[in-house]
Amino acid sequence: MRERSLPASPNWYSSRCSDVSSGGLLGVGAKNVIYLIEFSAASCRVTGELAGHRDLVSGFSFCPDPEQSDVCVSASTDGSVCFWDSTKKTLIKKNAAHKNPVSAVHWSPADKNLVVSGDEKGVVVCHWFHTGDTASFFPEPRTIFCLTCSPHSWKSVAVGYKDGMIVLIDISKKGEVMQRLRGHDNEIHSLAWSPVIGEDALYTRAEDQEATNGVSAGEESGCYLASGSKDQTVRIWSTAKGKGVMTLKLPFLKRRGSAVDPGVKERIWLNVHWPKGRATQLVTSCFSGELVMWDLAKSGKQKWNLFGTSSEGQNHSRIVFNMSSVQLQDGQELLISTSMDREIKCWDLNSLSCCWTLPTLGGHVYTLTFSPVAVGCLALGVGDNMIRVWNTLSTQNQYDVKSFWQSIKSKVTALSWHPKKEGSLAFGTDDGKVGIYDVFSSKPPHISSSYHKKTVYTLAWGPPVPPLSFGAEGKQSYSLYSCAGEGVVLQHDPSRLSGEATDIDKLIRDTNNIQHKLSPHTDISWKPDGKVVAIGNEDGSIDVYQAPSLTLLCSIQQHHKIINALRWHHEHSSPPEYHCLLASGSSNAVVYVHNLHSVIENPPESPVMLTEPYRRLSGHTAKITSMAWSPHHSGRLVTASYDGTAQVWDVLEEAAVSNYRGHTGYLLCADWSPVDPDVIWTGGKDFTVQEWKVSEQEFTKPPKGKKMVRLQDRRASSKPKKSNTAPGGGGWMEPSVNGEAATEVNRVVTEQGLPAEDEEEEVRSTNGLESPAAFERKPPSAAKSKDKPDVLKKKKPRSMLPLSTSMDHRPKEELLQDCVTLASVRNSAAPPAGCVPGQGEYIHLGLFHDREALYRMFEAEEESHVEAGHYDSVVYLRLWSGDLQGALQLATERGELNDHLLSIAPMAGFEAWSRTVEAFVKQLCLQEQFLKAASHLLSINKVYEAVDLLRSNKLYREAIALVKARLPADEPLLKELYTCWAAVLEKDGHLSAAAKCYLAAGCSFDAAKVIGRKNDVPSLRTAADLARISGEDDLAQMLALRCAKDLAAAQDWVAAQEVLSSQSPLLAHRLHLCVAELLAATLADSDVFSPASSVSGHPWATLRSSDTIQDRARDIWEEEFHVCLNSAGDRSAKALLQKLKPVETPAWSSSIPLRQVLLYSSVHLTRSLLSWLLDDDEQLITELWHAAAWLRDAGHFGITALFCRLLFPEGDVGVFSRKHSKTLQRSEAEASSLQALVCYHRLYECWWRDSAVQNGSCSEDELADRAPPAGTLELEESVRPTSSRSKEVDFEPSVLLSEPHAACQAAQRSVREIQERLAAMVLQHSQVQEGQLDSGDKQDSSLLPAPAVEQGSGEQETFLSLSSKMSTFQEELANIPNTIKMFPRPDVTECCLVLLHLSKSSSVSDVLRRQAKDLLRKYGTSPSVLKASRGFLT
């Protein structure tokens, strides 16, 4: 739970980014979060936030309906629209209907379930909250800036565009444009409907040329609409007429003692708001943040009143973006406004005075600190280039905040109050500036003339040290110390900031006689009594120095990462043993507390090293950023961390006391309240400062899992965004997050709190969200400077001889002595004692003596380079000394070979060069530079090794090129490479490339197979040609046949024949496709069959009126394919029939499409025609029966009838061809079955011709259970002759009345019925066993098939009796001849019924009628047949 807090600043340049609910809750969009603020006329309080958008919030609106006023909607530039529960602070649902950044959203006041949103591409989307449905409209191809729903009709929505156009659309008519309101010539910033319906007369000025003379009351039904534009005008529109009725020009108000120049183009955002119940009063914003109340019914020049005139400083100081009003339960009307000045203000609409002001923050809160003198005075350093000073103890205004911006111009990263002087506040910035503000004065700050090169991390007040301490003995004075990113601590004289600051490192070196380089400093903290100072370093060490000489007392070697925070325990009201406690935090997550009492009270003669902490505080999961000791307790510490939490510790007990998790993102600072021991203040990355109580927190320890805040924010901020222009440039702008400057991106940013006369035109950031790493302490050695490099300075190269070079930087006396020593060595036979040039203290003299001395110097320099890790320098020294093999060996061992060393390696001999090349190849392979490594292997003629290297790393293309270029053409390795590469390509789906590899390897069969794997027509055709060219005849025929079948299925008959024509052995299949095409074309000419449009066909595929289909097919074979009765060899009928015999037709399935059914049927028809040429009548009849059976079994009744008529137009199977005088014997079972099928369809044709059906003498319901398949109706029109009906049957129907077939069919029906009964009985039994048959099921048991029936004797059938019947019927079926079962006939009982119906009007012999009745009595036992035959048998 939090107490008070300062939220993030509302987003800029958005028409509706804040709204108020009827219950007094304010929601404002800031960054990608919506902050919820409870308010009244007297106060306000931040209660929470709604987080879920990935990008900036561009719109926000509460539901106006009081019943669901806790529901709200928000839109974002990430394209999402989110619905929220503001009470539970949870996401209800998220809608992603927009594909572009959303620029406006509004909840309709007229419909509690309607939300309308618009995006920058002009798309308007309606969201229905209760159903989740959406509807999109595109009224205009323009950029939407704002939209608002009518409060009187849910259908009407006003949309404002970037180019000044306003459009009224009707969403009930799919976004139809009702009116286009033209008059503005620049961006529409805001729209507001009149709260009162109707268009009563408003006063208009004569000089307003755009306006009309008013609209009389009741002339037309409509409602006024107000619009605010960047063209500095407010217009009132009649929505009924689509015209402007009034134009209001903004007044030029005096500000800061000077009038606004009308000729100067001011930055402006013109927001309009029409309060509820005030038909003639309109509130608008003005140039510099003023709010104006317009009286639209008032005459005269000044029709407006200014807000905030009751006292100075009530108005906003920058342009206003959003306004919204609410009427509280006590009747008071309040207006809420948000502005560029980062303040949220509440106004009384009756008195036009400001009720309260809530400051907001526009950047990370990097630092906060309470004044030690002015109790309750809290200073905040913020990333929006401003300092806030908050009087937290003010009784009149709980948000009494004062802002300081002058001369800062960068993020404020460090603050420190003077320990004694009230109001003196030191600050440090991101660009290295250090200054001092007097917060009780309006004067600008004093800025130090000494700038840091990088971000200022820490400021600390402490006693002066030399040279500032000289002459200051006995005086109470303080110096200001600053520590920055380059690792330097500077001492500034507060009274002379214009003087040069001193680097304390010089004093530390001199006092402690330190010769080595000091580790860069990252933090500094003075002990409250000023006796010692602790300095944190980049390497994690902490050095403690005694003032004023800065004598090193001890070094704490506990942390291993950069030190971020150091704090000494306070001395007031605490036992002496606590006074020397030092807490430290680093980029490790552990906090260490050190007790330095013994070191401080009894300083050691030499510095000591401490490696064990006094206390260890573990719990955080990320780096420590800040810490503070409680001034009210002894040994209580609060720490802030990158894990997003603040933790309170009991240091002596090493116990966690309380954990605060109210922030979203990193915490950067924390401090304890100086007056309330239970209150702590924290700030962080979420742009907020929060006050919270230790005792009211739910958690005591930090979260266990590491919070991935940083990673998530990086992902969110890495989304690319389009560059936008400044508002003054007229370009489209995403809502700005109020533009904090970030050092990581070059951009132009101004001070957001600047007065108007000092402002420059703002340029919005390309990324509104501040960089996550905006204030991260980095080691100076690793951090790269963001400043522009100095082109005049060049980086000095590292010395090859650093030891000897360093000797030249000694004192002048020693350098002079070197000259004397060198002269003695060169000119005296006995050199001075202990003087060996190039060694020890005389190493630098090796350069000025003989070669042996130089070599000794080289050896020493090599040792130095090895210790420093500069092995490349060692290599060059050995190279210089002529030890080339040693240089190459060292570089090989260290993996630091390079092209230069390799180029000189031949100087050491072929073997050394060869070893070096091989070592360099291994080094390159580790670096994944395989091509370069292979090239170096070629230099030593290791071609096979180079090829193997390329192949092992899957560089097959390069390996093959190398083999073909350097090895013989018959090299077996080449085929192996092609094969391996083809396998990889085939696996990856690159089939064409794999085929080329197989062809190159001589594997034509594999090439054709891999091409055909894609299984489409072009691939199969190519594969077939490939196999044919390569001599793989069997594979070529198989692939060509697959391709032809696919083409035939697609009705591309010409292409199918072309594919097969290239393969002479496939002539039989060409004949099959010929018959299939002829059959399909003949059926397509009738009304029965309507196939998909044929892609291509042959001109011969037509049936002449005098021919049967078999005669026409035989003629085509002779004319087109030269296949006839006398053909011999491969074209003989016998050979062709043998080719077609292996072609199998699959088992019948209902899922087979009709085109495939025709192909399968035509296979049998083709075989029958070939059998005709062979004069094999038995095979001919069998194949004809199979061809007709395929169509019959597939359920195509009409097509089967037409097929039979095409084969046997006279209805006699015996007459196969009159043209070729071919007759068939009907004695065979196949012929009888085929004849029965032909007569069956003839029977129905006669019945349809019978006028008795048309006259209604025969009820069709009598045959409902025995009606032919649905396809029969399709045949009716094609077979019914136009002449009058015939009274005589034109065929012999006796073949349909076969008693053996009737008995077989009856037995088969009985078996099926018994099987159904048994299945129902088993199902019911299993349900009873599983307990599924409850009382309700028993009542509905009639819906189940009866598992048992009553027998004639009254006994119920059982499972056993049914099984016995099943056995009886199965025995009957077994005794029936196989020919009857193999070649079935049409249903005999059905044929009997149709024949008896036909006998009423046609001449049917008495013998046939009696036979039909007898068969019905004997075998028509099913209920449907009994019902239909009742009229004939009684």
Q: Describe the largest sheet.
A: 5 strands, mixed
Please, what is the average pLDDT? 82
Q: Indicate the proportion of strand residues.
A: 15-25%
List the quaternary state of the chains. Answer: single chain
Structural class by secondary-structure content: alpha+beta
Radius of gyration, Cα only, in angstroms?
Answer: 50 Å
Work out the helix count.
35
Secondary structure: number of strands: 61
Structure description:
This protein has 1434 residues and is of the alpha+beta class. 30% of the residues lie in helices and 22% in strands. It is built from 35 helices and 61 strands. It has a five-stranded mixed β-sheet with strand order 44-45-46-47-51, with helices on one face. The protein has a four-stranded antiparallel β-sheet with strand order 1-59-58-57, with no helix packed on it. Helix 15 (991-1000) packs antiparallel against helix 16 (1004-1012), helix 24 packs across helix 26 and helix 26 packs parallel to helix 33 (1388-1398). The longest helix is centred in the C-terminal third of the chain and has 31 residues, at 1299-1329. The model is unreliable at 204-220, 256-264, 707-712, 718-736, 739-774, 781-793, 1251-1286 and 1335-1354 (pLDDT under 50).
